[in-house]
Amino acid sequence: MWRSVGVRVLRGGGAGQPRAASGAAAAQLRRRLENELEEIRGAGTWKNERVIASRQGPHLRLAGGGAGAYGEDGEGSRGLFMVRCFSFSFPVGILNFCANNYLGLSSHPEVIRAAVEALEKFGAGLSSVRFICGTQSIHKDLEEKIARFHQREDAILYASCFDANAGIFEALLTPEDAVLSDELNHASIIDGIRLCKANKYRYKHMDMQDLEAKLQDAQKHRLRLVATDGAFSMDGDIAPLKEICQLAQKYDALVFIDECHATGFLGPNGRGTDELLGVMDKVTIINSTLGKALGGAAGGYTTGPKPLIDLLRQRSRPYLFSNSLPPAVVGCASKALDLLMESNAIAQSMAAKTQRFRSKMTAAGFTISGKEHPICPVMLGDARLAAVMAEDMLNRGIYVIGFSYPVVPKGKARIRVQISAVHSDEDIDRCVEAFTEVGRKHGALP
Ligand code: PLP
After folding, report:
1. DSSP code for 77
2. Average pLDDT of the residues of the chain
3. What is the pTM of this model?
4. Which residues are catalytic?
5. What distance in Å separates the CA atoms of residue 38 and residue 301, rounded to the nearest whole number?
6. Which atom of ligand 1 is found nearest the CA of 231?
7. Tens digits of per-residue pLDDT, 60-113?
């Protein structure tokens, strides 16, 4: 038996067991892959997946548990954790501070009920892409609701926001056009831009001088599109959209924002970064996800001008050539939007808890990057410190993630904490207390 982390590879292939392909090419491929995997381990960037045995929420139950257990194979596979490798022990029940479940809707009873009802009424799935036999009334209703939520003309659903980002630039931009992208934009924006034939400009992160210089250079092109994350998930910082929109106006450009870490909770009514910064009428295109604050199931969308959405239905490849969103997933997102449009109480509750965490941690002596955002990176600088502190937090039953180079710049290692509306004040306080103890123990605090 060959054994690699979290994956069991068996020779032979008895009944019900995987078979290893034979032949020189297959053997060569296996060697190459194993070398590459070894390099990833050697670089300390191996990512492992913790197995959760409960619903997503502030309190999780992990499968297995105890020293070094990881997964359910009963063979004591070693837990390799975060961006660095560690074996560790952890309690089975933990307090979770690292999901994008900002509004706590992933396990909201009404969201779950809506999914069950959609499943019962519309079935498991469509076995089709949208334009062949895959559009149900609930897809159209959800698209209409998304457009209304963002106060835009129309919306189009995708299987994910990754797909929405992969599908927009190629459909919209030609070699006559230009796209100007923040250097720290999400990987899916980067990939989407790679797929298009427009002229590409990368401006320094949130640097308006650099953006202006690039916009001046891009005047020679037919159309200019500035693309930015609304909120950046590594730092919890928010794009200077007001300034970006002013520059866009000055240089006759369009603005595109990815609102995955903003939709549902930023701004007075949770509409997102454009609402927070008072530029809802200046941003032309929004892409966002249904897989974070809006119920957390899956799915993404583009919302904006109707002719753009019509064009995407004709030309956007991830939309045209991928299955329709399953009804249960549509049901979840639709109910999440209903809840948010009824009241902003959930978003306000999350904002209050974020404020509680940020102010208590700052008072304890920690530096928290960004402001107002529920992504609260606890800045530690040293990669090893971030790793051992995150490990020690988990030993105390609190799940947070340490990030270090190459995920974030060298010398800027941090532990990322994400606050949810369903954390109680006691949960927040417990997390701060654990940070304070662990910080003192490892020298991050005096
Ligand atoms: N854009 C940003 C900024 C994200 O953080 C993510 C998810 O991590 C995505 C896009 C992709 O979203 P989805 O999970 O819906 O594919």
Report:
1. -
2. 91
3. 0.90
4. 233, 261, 292
5. 37
6. 3
7. 998 875 433 332 222 222 222 222 233 445 556 899 999 999 999 999 999 999
- Which of 21-25, 117-121, 367-371 is least confident? 21-25
Q: Would you list the domain boundaries of the chain?
A: 109-342, 344-442
For ligand 1, the distance from its centroid to the CA atom of residue 260, given in whole angstroms, is: 6
Rounded to the nearest whole angstrom, what is the distance from the C-alpha of residue 295 to the centroid of ligand 1? Answer: 14
Q: Which residues line ligand 1 (CB under 6 A)?
A: 160-162, 165, 186, 188, 229, 233, 258, 260-261, 289, 291, 300
Nearest CA to ligand 1 atom 12: 161
Q: What is the distance of C-alpha 418 from the center of its chain?
A: 12
DSSP letters along 91-132, please? -SEEEE---S-TTSGGG-HHHHHHHHHHHHHH-S--SSBHHH
Q: Which CATH architecture has domain 344-442?
A: Alpha-Beta Complex (3.90)
The helix (H) or strand (E) run that includes residue 7 is strand 7-9
Question: What is the enclosing helix (H) or strand (E) of 431?
Answer: helix 425-441
Domain formed by 109-342, architecture: 3-Layer(aba) Sandwich (3.40)
Quote the tokens at residue 292.
């974070």
- What CA–CA distance (Å, rounded) separates 166 from 195? 7
Is the Cα torsion angle 364, 101, 73, 28 positive or negative in sign?
negative
Question: Which residue lies with its CA nearest to atom 7 of ligand 1?
Answer: 260
CB 225 within 8 A of CB 254: yes
Q: What are phi and psi of 315, to 5 degrees?
A: -120, -20
> Please, which residues have CB within 8 angstroms of residue 206's CB and are 6 or more apart in sequence?
182, 237, 239, 240
